[in-house]
Amino acid sequence: MIHSLFLVNASGDIFLEKHWKSVVSRSVCDYFFEAVERATEPENVPPVIPTPHHCLINVLRQRIYFVAVIQSEVPPLFVIEFLHRVVDTFQDYFGVCTEAAVKDNVVVVYELLEEMLDNGFPLATESNILKELIKPPTILRTVVNTITGSTNVGEQLPTGQLSVVPWRRTGVKYTNNEAYFDVVEEIDAIIDKSGSTITAEIQGVIDACVKLTGMPDLTLSFMNPRLLDDVSFHPCVRFKRWEAERILSFVPPDGNFRLLSYHVSSQNLVAIPVYVKHNISFREGSSQGRFELTLGPKQTMGKAVESVLVSSQLPRGVLNANLSPSQGTYTFDPVTKLLSWDVGKINPQKLPSLKGSMSLQTGASKPDENPTINLQFKIQQLAVSGLKVNRLDMYGEKYKPFKGIKYMTKAGKFQVRT
Amino acid sequence: MLGMSANSVSYNEQGSVESGVDAAQENSSIPGSISSGGAASSLFSADYKKNEDLKEMLESNKESLKLEAMKRIVGLIAKGKNASELFPAVVKNVASKNIELKKLVYVYLVRYAEEQQDLALLSISTFQRALKDPNQLIRASALRVLSSIRVPIIVPIMMLAIKEAATDLSPYVRKTAAHAIQKLYSLDPDQKEHLIEVIEKLLKDKSTLVAGSVVMAFEEVCPDRIDLIHKNYRKLCNLLVDVEEWGQVVIIHMLTRYARTQFVSPWREDAVFDENSAKAFYDSEEERRVDQSKPYIMDPDHRLLLRNTKPLLQSRNTAVVMAVSQLYWHLAPKHELSIITKSLVRLLRSHREVQYIVLQNIATMSIQRKGMFEPFMKSFYVRSTDATHIKTLKLEILTNLANEANISTILREFQTYVKSQDKAFAAATIQAIGCCATNISEVTDTCLNGLVLLLSNRDETVVAESVVVIKKLLQTQPSQHSDIIKHMAKLFDNITVPMARASILWLMGEYCEHVPKIAPDVLRKMAKTFTDEEDIVKLQIVNLAAKLYLTNSKQTKLLTQYILNLGKYDQNYDIRDRTRFIRQLIVPNEKSGALSKYARRILMAPKPAPVLQSAFKDRDRFQLGTLSHTLNSQASGYLELSDWPAVAPDQSVRNVEVVEPVKETGAPALSKSKHAKSNEKFYSDSEEEDGEEEEGSNSEDSSSSSSEESVSESESEENSDDSNKSSSSQSEKSSSESDSEKKKTLKNKKPQQQKLDSKDRKQKNGNAVKVESRSESESGSESSSSESSSESGSELDSDSDSGTDQKKNTKPKPVQSKPVIKKVEKKEVSLLDLDDFSPVPVTTPKSSILSPNLLSDLQGLLISPTASALQASSPVFVPETSHELLHRMTGKGLSAQYRFTRQPCIYGNSMVSLQLTLSNSTDQALENIHISEKSSTGQNIHRFNAIERLEPQASVTVSMGVDFNDSTQAANFQLCTKEDEFSVSIQPAVGELLLPITMSEADFTKEQGKLVGMNESSATITMTPENVSSQSVNRKVVSVANLGVIPSGQENIYRFSGKTVSSGSLVLVSVVLKDPDAVITINTEKTVMGSMLLRQVKTALTNSGP
């Protein structure tokens, strides 16, 4: 399975290595560096790189490459999924997963990696279990440890390891019992030149933050569960119950977790909340190009569209852009040719626009491609699919928890072709 | 001494620490290979000091200092720096009380032990001690480290530790043991045989924690030992949902491989899937085939696997979803395949790396089954933000999905892509258009025109790619497209990419007859620029010249000679060679002789059109989802997926207990999970006997957690109907006394009987009994027995004269009473027949075979379960021994034998059920055989109905019930015929006055706690060595007394439970092995019975022999 792991930063330095079997020389990464060089963008590095004796499987997260060394047949997704789980765990422990954070906490990182894999096979990846084995570093605990000489390492096997609910530790206690659920939907769309939708779909997740004492058993039901076309669950959800009654029944993990990811059936028409009017043109023979962009709200169900961010990769021939936004700020990077415009909130009375000219390389012919415009936005208190949680009930415990449900719609991969 | 060596090591390593990352890495792989002198070390004294500093900290008394030092050392290791010279100082702390310090030392040890083998040995004893620690976490981590230290000397220690840990009470430790197996195997492959034994043991483990890890070990150590899986197959299928996600992936992949060796193909053999045919076509095809040939019936186990993996498509773990998808791809009937589509498309929302792998697999699938993904075509539309490799894959899939209906949509989409800023992607799109054009003839022209338009594109790569693709397209249908060739000739001057120019020239030459005016002009232009062209272009110029010379020598003769002359002196030898060759070929002269006659045929031969095919064609020769599939080349350790067998191997090898009832077929009234549970125990234990009986020679059979008798619930339910019918008919028939009728009955029983006969003979020969034959005979379904008979065919031949054989068998004879352990003589209890159940002979002892599952199901209905803890269960073992009731000499020709059926009596709850076999050895019929009304002792006896007539040499079996009142006092009664009266008595053994019950281990201990003091009797005995195994203890005890076996968590403790028949008092028996002694404890309110039972168990366990 996984033989070794190397962490490589953006500038190509290996800043951490861990071996689960005999040591593999870090020169194996040379193949990886070659691949990085060949790729024009960091994202273009192929995830699986064969070398004469090993195979390198890498994932890129937070500008860090996690390069796993594989020696024999193993499902590549197995490794990829695990590496992402490692990153998630680091984020969970240190807040962020950056080179600095890893270096600062190298001992905890090492202890974690040691627990997560045994002989290259995952041993404990469940966050709740890991947290019982190795306590996350906090300033308070560091101080206490230095004074009392106690350690961050648990002495007992985490209760979860052996229980039927490995995701939950026993003996959880809170003074305020709360359960929050965020229904977050993302719209993936491709809008063509004329403004008509080529493809649009809604993907959603329900993220939960549950802080409840004891062993609560929750059920969550929807007003319109038929909307959910394809779902994937946290292991805690009882699948049979869902199959039979379309009710989510589960003993929740402690803390933050993703309860459910879903896909809204493609039959439903997707409401596109934003429209983009654009006029990007280059004239033959002139070194100037026109750039005009106007945004407006479409089907928003009366809710405000916020945190709007427009970005576009302009053609290579563009030297500079001289634009003026009606609101917000814009930046243009002459090296990467990336234009980004932070719009903020869309005011339906006064539509935001970005107008101006682009200067092209003199003598160069007019670029024959048009840039695509990527859009990001957020709409609070709206699940665009219309999904609604009906009720949330708790069994198994006596107290009355505080329950909260929040809806939000975001742009996923939202592109406008010009 | 130790210090010295440590010092020298540290000196040696000095240079490496300082000389940078790379050098350090080199050194670590060749420990101590650099012998830097003292001078070197003094140069880097600063660094030397630093490590010295760490050493001091490690040797200090303060825990916090040590911990700080270890943390810094771990930091060094993480950076890839060499810290091996600190080994002696670090290893001292291995026994530290501070758990974090200890863990860090472990980290260090695992990293450097391989390089410092001698010093590493110092730590071994600490681990050995820790292996015995009461804390399971400590035991487990000790095993982890011990097995991770790659020091060959400790292989025996590791082996021992693994064996011990494999039987540990904690599943976590057992899981660690499974991991350790692989480590030891990679360290010393010679241990394989021993390790397989451990794997075999762990495969039987019922813990979900262990399952994934042990299957991983299996895959690594002995993937070819598929026979180890049989017995665990159903368990693995049923546990799968609860196994942790990583284990699921490994198990699913293994089961895919397993299924391909064990089941027949669910795909229609000759319904080869044509790429272009629509889905409707398959359906009709299949329907038609169903009509023609006999319908395919899926093995229930095959179905079980598919059904139990399906929910996992909803897993959040992408690897699990992919694993299930590939399982469906490789195992499911084609029409069920569509359920994986949605889940795979869902994965496309995940990280870029996940997308990459999933798209690759979809690409392979979409070639064969485009119908699967067509509805989701839009999910494969490319976004400008996708990484290049993702874009290319999506393009590939879109190309595969293209058909007449959607091609226009796809081509419109492609048009956008061609304009992409990513030129490599644009070029790939053009190729994709070319593919679509060849695959779908309707759009070839449209595509060609589109491509021609692209020829005026500003970007060279786009143009070049278009030319190349057009060339390929034109090759397929050149005649109609002379205008395109003309157009290309016009564009020629503007095209600079050599490949494109070469392609155009080749086209000119190939189709010069279609453009007779233009081609010579192009050649004229090329003659001018020949010297400035690239090599590939030059070669094509020479080609064009030669072809024109042959077709149009009048206009081009001089031009050709000029070009050939230029080529003759070219710098590139390829071109010089080609020129020389062409000249000899086309210009006739005295030397060129034979060949030049054929010049035209050589150069102008019609050339086959190139086939544009996907890079993913035939990729499914690799199992989907594997690394090999991704790389498209076999990775080391890749396990080939075998083809479906033409004929399914024996299915019964998988017959084991079922953890969860399989709800495939109906009859829900009978499938109470509770009963199923009790069945499991029942079977698993009886199986142990069998294992023993078979001398443990066959590794498959010796499994203790599995049983061959048990058939999956579904099967038994199916069978239940049959057996009910057949046996009731049997009883009817045998009750009538006509001979001919009887023969018929016997005929019905023939297959099973044959089975038994063959087994008998086998046992006589001292051979191991084939499990298959046994299990089939038990399950009693016609189909399976016929199958098994074909398997053990040779034995059957001698039975051809079975009619006479049967007759002998039906007679009571000493052979039967020989103490062969065999599960026969299941008395039939049928709900429907209960009312008119008369004490007529049910069946002859030998042939009454009934699916045990059915029996216990029925039993569960008959006896109202007392408490959940005291679940009555079926007998683990039914002895065959019959006791003489009446000898034929004293009985004046009438002989009678009785035996205990160990079933709950249907005549009364407090009665013991008995079976009586009456035979007539006189030469005239006996009439009116019955039991007289008056009973000499106080027992309550349920008599059998009088037998009106017993023919000479015939025998009947009847059943009766006696309430012994929980005492071993004999029941005396009169057996009467028409003329005579015989006094007989039945003396029960104490063990027969019990009925087995099942309870959990915890309940057992609880109940045992209540029955102490007077109610407890115990004895210590010395066990004979052959009795020590778990099977033999279980077997011995259940043969003495009708008790249920309680699954025990501990290796050396055996527990049995039962209740007395009359009063229902608990009887608990436990046997604790303390090598070589054993303590037998019996707890019961009935103290007299307790002590009697104790005596019998004692004798049984001290006696050797079967």
Describe the structure.
- The complex is a heterodimer of chains A (418) and B (1106).
- The model of chain A has no long low-confidence stretch (mean pLDDT 87).
- Chain A folds into three domains: 2-148, Beta-Lactamase; 178-270 and 382-416, Mu homology domain, subdomain B (Immunoglobulin-like, Sandwich); 274-380, Sandwich (Immunoglobulin-like), CATH 2.60.40.1170.
- The longest helix of chain A is centred in the first third of the chain and has 19 residues, at 76-94.
- Chain A is of the alpha+beta class.
- Helix content of chain A is 18%, strand content 42%.
- In chain A, the strands form five sheets. Chain A has a nine-stranded mixed beta sheet, with no helix packed on it. In chain A, strands 2-1-5-4-3 form a five-stranded antiparallel beta sheet. A four-stranded antiparallel beta sheet of chain A has the order 14-15-20-17, with no helix packed on it.
- Chain A starts with a strand and ends with a strand.
- Chain A is globular, with a radius of gyration of 25 Å.
- Chain B has 49 helices and 16 strands.
- In chain B, the strands form three sheets. In chain B, strands 1, 11, 12, 13, 14, 15 and 16 form a seven-stranded antiparallel beta sheet that branches. Chain B has a five-stranded antiparallel beta sheet with strand order 2-3-4-8-6, with no helix packed on it. A four-stranded antiparallel beta sheet of chain B has the order 7-5-9-10, with no helix packed on it.
- Chain B is elongated.
- Among the domains of chain B are: 50-262, Leucine-rich Repeat Variant; 875-988, Immunoglobulin-like (Sandwich), CATH 2.60.40.1150; 994-1102, TATA-Binding Protein (2-Layer Sandwich).
- In chain B, 53% of the residues lie in helices and 9% in strands.
- With 1106 residues, chain B is of the alpha+beta class.
- Classes of the chains: A alpha+beta (418), B alpha+beta (1106).
- Chain B: Residues 699-709, 778-793 have a biased composition (Low complexity).
- Chain B: It is a peripheral membrane protein.
- Chain B: It is found in: Cytoplasmic vesicle, Clathrin-coated vesicle membrane; Golgi apparatus.
